[in-house]
Design brief:
Elements: E1 2-4, E2 15-22, E3 25-33, H1 41-65, H2 81-88
Antiparallel strand pairs: 1-2, 2-3
Helix pairs in contact: 1-2
């Protein structure tokens, strides 16, 4: 998961990039312009992390429908310290 801050030259919207891995292989990916204009890299990364979380839930639901048990947590890798701190506050941001 990653975000490219304000790279859209006309709209200044950031780009979210997500890759879903299962058993060492990519099973899904998504790249899209974010719906809102992020004012900071932290905001762009946090928005991308939220999108990644929704995508993870979709794939976990799909695997459950295919009777593939998901007993362990799914890891979401984030490299922006500010976005990690926002996610760990457990308060609305």
């Amino acid at each position: 998961m990653n975000a490219d801050w304000a790279s859209g030259t006309k709209t200044r919207k950031s780009i979210t990039g997500i890759t879903i891995m299962y058993s060492g292989r990519a099973i899904g990916y998504r790249t899209k312009f974010q719906d809102t204009i992020a004012h900071t890299t932290t905001e762009a990364e946090f928005t991308a992390a939220c999108e990644a979380g929704k995508t993870i839930l979709f794939f976990r639901s799909l695997l459950d429908d295919l009777d593939i048990p998901q007993t362990d947590a799914t890891f979401l890798y984030e490299d922006n310290t500010g976005a990690i701190m926002m996610a760990n506050t457990q308060q609305p941001t």
